[in-house]
Amino acid sequence: MSSVSKPRRVETGEPPSAPGEGTELAFTVDAFHYGKYHLVQPKGGHRAGMDAMLLAATVPDAARGRVADLGSGAGAAGLAVAARVPGVTVTLVERSDVMLGFARRTMALQQNDWLRDRVEIVGADVTLRGDARRAAGLADEAFDWVILNPPFNEPSDRTTPDPLRAEAHAMNDGEMFEHWLRTAGAIMRPGGQVSVIARPRSIRPILDAFAGRFGGVEVTPVHPRLGDEAIRILVTAVKQSRGWLNFQPPLVIHDGTGHNFAARMDGLNNGQSDLPRRRPIRLGR
Description:
By secondary structure, the chain is α/β, with parallel strands linked by helices. Helices cover 24% and strands 26% of the residues.
C-alpha cells in the first residue's frame, strides 16, 4: 500500500489581500484524499495535515445530518468529512478574515464543485455567546456533529514568528476548552457527538468542559510508533449522555522505524476509512 503522509501540492500563487490585510499572502492548492478535494491554504502559515484528517475520521461513514467544524481555518477537516460522508452537510466556522478568504477560495475551486451544495462558510468567533452567537449564524441545537481542533500551545511555549501560525496554535485563554465546548454544546442537538483533537496534557480541561454537557466520553491516544508516548488524543462525547469515560486502543502512526504510515493510519489520513465510536450514537436526522 502506498503511503501519503501529506497532501500533494498542485499549484502556488498569490491571492488578493484579505479584508483588513495590507500584504498579499502566497498560497498553495493541495490535493487531499487522493485528489477527491482540494484546499487553498497559506504557503507559510498554519497548514492542514494529519490532525485535521484524524479529526474528520471521527464522523462515521454512515452519518447523517449537519456537521459544524469550529475553528475550521481553510476547511481541511470539514471538507474531509463532506468528501467522505455523503449524508451530511458541513458548516465551516472561522473568525479570521484571512482564513475565511482561503476557505472561500477553496470552495470556489472547480475541483470542489461537487461539494459546494453541501458546504457553507460562517464567519464567527467560536467564543460568542447567546444572542451574539445566534446572530452570527450559529443557532441553538442546529447540528448533529461538531468537530474542533482548537489552538493547543500554552502562552509560555516558544511561539512562531508567523502571525497566521501563531494565531492557529497559541492558546491565549486558560479557559479555551470551556469556551469552545460551551459553544459546541449550545449548537448541538441532544444525542449529538462532539469530537476534539488535542495534546494529551489537555485531557483535564477537556473533561472539565464536558462536565454537565457531554458524557459517554471515549479517548483514543495517538502514538508515533509502538513504545512511544502519545502525542495527540482524539476525544469524542455525546451531548446529555450519562455514559462512562472509556479509553480506546491506541492509534499508531508509523510502522517500524520508517516514515511510512501504518496501514490503518494511511486509510484514515486519506479518507478511505473512518474511526467510529465503540459505543455508536444515533446517526442524525
